[in-house]
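Researcher: Structure for this, please.
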Amino acid sequence: MKELEYPFDSDFVLKKKKSLKKQLLENGNFIEKNIAILGGSTTSDIKLILELFLLNQGIKPNFYESEYNQYYQDAMFPNKELELFNPDVIYIHTTNRNITAYPIISNSKQEVEELLVTEYTKFENMWNRLQQVYNCPIIQNNFELPYYRLMGNKEASDYRGKVNFITKLNLKFYEYAENNQNFYINDINYISASYGLEKWADQFYWHMYKYALAVPAIPTLAFNISNIIKAIFGKNKKAFVLDLDNTLWGGIVGDDGVENIKIGPEVPSGQVFSEFQKYLKEYKDLGIILNVNSKNEKENAIAGLNHPDGPLKPEDFIIIKANWDPKSKNIVDIANELNIGVDSLVFVDDNPAEREIVKQQVKGVSIPEMTTPENYINIIDKSGFFEVTTISKDDLKKSEMYKENAKRNEMLNSFSNYDDYL
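Model: Predicted structure, token format:
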């Protein structure tokens, strides 16, 4: 549903949550999962908006929601209701409001270190018990920065500063995540900064409703959580399908010639496309499959990809469809040749007409609304198509594996019978 894809209108989502839910339930094909929310502040609207994003991801959630600020008690003491609920995921919504004690200016370094250990140990004990009792994935917020700085910039470097304390506490959370499978950080430290810390920490919503973030920020938070949950349950995308002209470079290679397309350091617009290509190449290195779907002569497409200033080269792609067939047909063919569903593909094209045709004719493919080239990276990055929960050696080799499979399929199609192919 377009209304729940980045960039979504948060006010619209909050106002229309009931009608959006009704539409999603009418049209969706879902897997059901039990999601427990253990909150350190009010979570009712977080639950309602998270449900929308999960439904849009193909997951129908059943919820357990703790009473206000009862997250620790629910986690640490026998809880028959939660045990019978049998959660598939536990999400712990704590914020810097739930830090028990901060350093004070008269503390020694040793006293601050003891405070840090005490605060961290409370959370570690809670995570360990949840794993023992429920044996399911845990999603834990890290801590957002405080909305004021008593010592100004010194807050970051002085051992008694709140900023310094929160940073060190977050690092301890990350170390636990590195050493424990099925434990994931919901990075509200990043998303609150991206959203705007002053807007995120609007004090009106805390004092009026005990929300630890502004209500208008809830869709941003919920969308981020939903991306982690859909990744845990195998709903991530697997591959890009990329247009070329005015998407990977500026200009039209067939009309302008390779020497005149905009890519590289010579002009600002060329730098933008170079950055976008570098960004996509990092995805390829992460195991995400890159493919081309371009209305072009094949030789022009290859020449453009061989531009000396272009970070991406023909060998970075698994399948290159440069022809005059409808792009919708090419997308279906790419999915078939990769042996994955079209719902695993992200189609990136600067042309809104091409995007709309594909949207109408290939149901399930994700199609981000590309605007100006300066925003390409931001749009892809914040859409959460490829949320990473684990990085294995097999993931890093995935591109090569698909490339070998594509070569085998190409060879198979060149033989008249299967025995000759073998």
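Researcher: Any notable elements?
Model: The beta strands are 31-39, 59-65, 89-93, 138-141, 183-186, 239-242, 289-295, 319-323, 345-348. The first strand starts at residue 31 and ends at 39.
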